[in-house]
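Researcher: I'd like a candidate sequence for this fold, 551 residues long. If you have to choose between options at a position, lean toward the conservative one.
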C-alpha cells in the first residue's frame, strides 16, 4: 500500500504535464473541421470527430491546459485570502474574529453549486465567474484551518518572546507563524487542487465557464453528450481524462504531502540475539530516527526484561519521549529514515502490518503520555474511556470494575459512578494523569511505557503513585520503562537507570551501582589544607586560641 501514493503522484504529474503542453502536441487546430459530425475514428481523426466535425483528439489535448492553470490559480488565491484572514482573526480577535467567523459560516451554509450560480448571475458566464466561485467555496475551510493553527502557534513561548522583543505584527507573522504553517499548507494544498479541478470542470459541463470555441474537458462532455451512442469517444475521452487526473491526485494525497518517505534497514538477528528477544518485553537494537536536518535517535540499543523496572533520565530535548514512542512504532511524520529494529513482546514492529501492530500494542503495551489532556477525547467521559481500554484488553465488565475500583482506591481517586461520568476538563490535571495510569494498567499488560507519569502531581501524590506502579508491576511480572526528571525519586523503584544525551543512551547501570557512584565520600576536617588534626591533649586544638581561622 505504501507504493500507491507515489505511483499516483507520478501518474498525476505525467497527466498534468501532458495537459499543460497539450496545445502544442495537437495535430490540428481546435476549431478546424476535419469530417462530418460524430464521425467514427479513422486515420486522420484517431478518436473521431465531435458534434461540429472537429478532431476529438486535438481538442482533448488542448482542453486540459486552461483547466489546470485556472485550478492552480484558484488554489493560490484561495490560500492567500483564507490564510491571511485566518491569521488576522487569530491575532486581532474581538469583533474582527467574530465578523470573519460569521461570514465564513454564511459561505459554508450555501451549497457550492448554488454559489456558482449566484456568481454567474452577477458577473456573467466565463472562467472568471468559475474561478471566483471556486475561491469562495474553498476560502471558509482554509480560513478556519489557518485560524485554528495560528491560535495554537500563539500559545508557544517563541511567539511571546517575539512580542517581548517588540516585533511588529508583520514580523511575527512572517518569522514565527508562517514557517510553522508550511506543513499544514503542504498537506492541504492537494485537497484544494482536487476540489478546484472538480468545481471548474463542473462549471464548464453546465455551460457556466468555458464557452465556444474554447476546448475544455467539461465543455466537451456537455457538447457531445447527445451523440454518445453514435460516437462515444467524443464524450468518454474527456471523462477519462478528468478521472485520470483526479484519481491519481487523490491517491497521492494518501501519503506524499503528509508522511515523509521512510527507509527501513532492519538487521539480521543471530541465534543469541533471538534468545534475548524471547527473554525480554522490549528489545531495541541500533535504532536511529532521522529528520531532514536532524537525528532524533542515534544507534540506541536497550533491553527491558520481564519484571524489570527501568528509568530513562536525561536533559530536556535529549530524545527520551521520542525513544518511548519509537518503542511503540510511532515516529514523526517528517521522519526520513529509520534504521535498526524494535521487538515488542517478541515481534518485530517493522515486519508486521498496521493492523497487527495495533492489536499488538492494545494487548501487550500500556502507555501513559506526558500530557493526558492532549491524549483523551474531550467529548468522552472517563468511564467510557476506561470501558474502551478494558475491551481492547479483553476484560469482562466484572474484571474491569474490580480493577478500576481497586486502583482508584489505592491512588486516592473517587470510585463512585458520578466521577466516572465526568469529562476530562471537569477534573484536575493530577486526577486525569492518575486515571490515564489506571487505564494503562488495566489487564496488566506485559510492558508499561510511561512518559513522566507524575509531572502534574505534588510530592506526596507522586510517592504514592510511584509506589503503586512498582508494587503492581512486580506483583504481576510487568516490565516498566518510564521517563523521569527526578533522579532520587526514580531510583527508589527502578532496577536500572538509563541516561540519554543528544539522542544516545550514554550510560546504563543498575540503580545500586549508579547511585553509589554519585554519593560523595565524607570530607574530614584533617583533609582540609591548614586545619589542625584532633589531639589527645586536654586542650582542644580547634578552639579560638588555636584555630588557624582565628582573627
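Model: Candidate sequence:
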Amino acid at each position: 500500500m505504501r507504493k500507491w501514493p507515489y505511483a499516483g503522484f507520478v501518474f498525476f504529474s505525467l497527466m498534468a504535464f501532458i495537459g499543460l503542453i497539450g496545445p502544442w502536441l495537437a495535430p490540428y487546430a481546435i476549431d478546424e473541421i476535419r469530417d462530418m459530425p460524430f464521425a467514427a475514428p479513422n486515420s486522420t481523426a484517431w478518436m473521431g470527430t465531435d458534434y461540429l466535425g472537429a478532431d476529438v483528439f486535438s481538442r482533448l489535448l488542448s482542453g486540459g491546459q486552461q483547466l489546470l492553470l485556472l485550478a492552480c490559480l484558484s488554489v493560490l488565491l484561495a490560500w492567500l485570502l483564507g490564510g491571511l484572514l485566518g491569521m488576522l482573526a487569530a491575532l486581532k480577535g474581538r469583533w474582527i474574529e467574530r465578523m470573519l467567523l460569521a461570514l465564513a459560516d454564511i459561505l459554508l451554509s450555501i451549497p457550492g453549486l448554488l454559489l456558482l450560480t449566484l456568481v454567474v448571475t452577477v458577473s456573467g458566464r466565463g472562467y472568471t465567474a468559475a474561478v471566483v466561485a471556486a475561491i469562495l467555496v474553498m476560502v471558509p475551510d482554509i480560513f478556519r484551518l489557518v485560524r485554528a493553527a495560528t491560535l495554537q502557534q500563539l500559545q508557544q513561548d517563541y511567539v511571546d518572546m517575539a512580542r517581548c522583543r517588540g516585533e511588529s505584527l508583520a514580523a511575527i507573522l512572517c518569522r514565527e507563524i508562517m514557517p510553522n504553517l508550511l506543513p499544514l499548507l503542504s498537506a492541504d494544498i492537494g485537497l484544494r487542487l482536487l476540489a478546484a479541478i472538480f468545481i471548474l470542470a463542473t462549471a464548464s459541463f453546465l455551460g457556466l465557464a468555458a464557452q465556444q470555441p474554447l476546448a475544455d474537458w467539461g465543455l466537451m462532455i456537455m457538447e457531445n453528450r447527445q451523440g454518445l451512442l453514435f460516437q462515444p469517444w467524443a464524450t468518454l475521452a474527456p471523462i477519462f481524462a478528468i478521472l485520470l487526473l483526479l484519481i491519481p491526485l487523490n491517491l497521492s494525497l494518501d501519503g506524499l504531502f503528509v508522511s515523509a518517505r521512510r527507509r527501513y534497514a532492519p538487521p539480521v538477528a543471530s541465534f543469541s540475539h533471538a534468545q534475548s528477544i524471547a527473554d525480554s518485553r522490549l528489545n531495541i537494537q541500533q535504532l536511529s530516527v532521522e529528520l531532514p536536518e536532524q537525528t532524533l535517535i542515534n544507534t540506541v540499543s536497550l533491553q527491558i526484561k520481564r519484571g524489570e523496572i527501568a528509568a530513562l533520565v536525561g536533559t530536556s530535548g535529549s530524545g527520551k519521549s521520542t525513544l518511548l514512542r519509537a518503542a511503540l512504532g510511532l515516529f514523526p511524520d517528517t521522519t526520513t529514515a529509520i534504521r535498526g529494529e524494535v521487538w515488542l513482546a517478541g515481534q518485530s514492529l517493522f515486519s508486521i502490518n498496521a493492523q497487527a501492530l495495533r492489536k499488538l500494542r492494545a494487548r501487550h503495551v500500556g502507555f501513559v503520555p506526558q500530557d493526558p489532556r492532549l491524549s483523551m477525547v474531550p467529548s468522552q467521559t472517563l468511564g467510557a474511556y476506561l470501558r474502551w481500554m478494558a475491551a481492547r484488553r479483553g476484560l469482562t465488565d466484572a474484571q474491569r470494575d474490580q480493577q478500576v475500583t481497586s486502583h482508584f482506591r489505592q491512588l486516592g481517586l473517587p470510585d463512585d459512578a458520578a466521577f466516572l461520568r465526568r469529562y476530562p476538563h471537569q477534573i484536575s490535571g493530577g486526577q486525569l494523569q492518575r486515571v490515564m495510569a489506571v487505564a494503562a494498567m488495566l489487564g496488566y499488560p506485559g510492558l508499561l511505557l510511561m512518559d513522566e507519569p507524575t509531572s502534574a502531581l505534588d510530592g506526596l501524590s507522586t510517592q504514592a503513585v510511584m509506589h503503586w506502579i512498582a508494587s503492581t508491576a512486580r506483583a504481576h511480572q510487568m516490565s516498566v520503562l518510564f521517563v523521569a526528571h527526578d533522579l532520587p525519586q526514580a531510583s527508589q523503584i527502578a532496577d536500572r537507570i538509563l541516561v540519554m544525551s543528544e539522542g544516545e543512551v550514554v550510560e546504563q547501570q543498575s540503580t545500586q551501582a549508579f547511585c553509589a557512584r554519585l554519593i560523595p565520600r565524607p570530607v574530614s576536617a584533617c583533609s582540609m589544607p591548614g586545619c589542625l588534626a584532633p589531639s589527645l591533649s586536654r586542650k582542644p586544638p580547634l578552639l579560638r586560641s588555636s584555630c588557624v581561622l582565628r582573627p
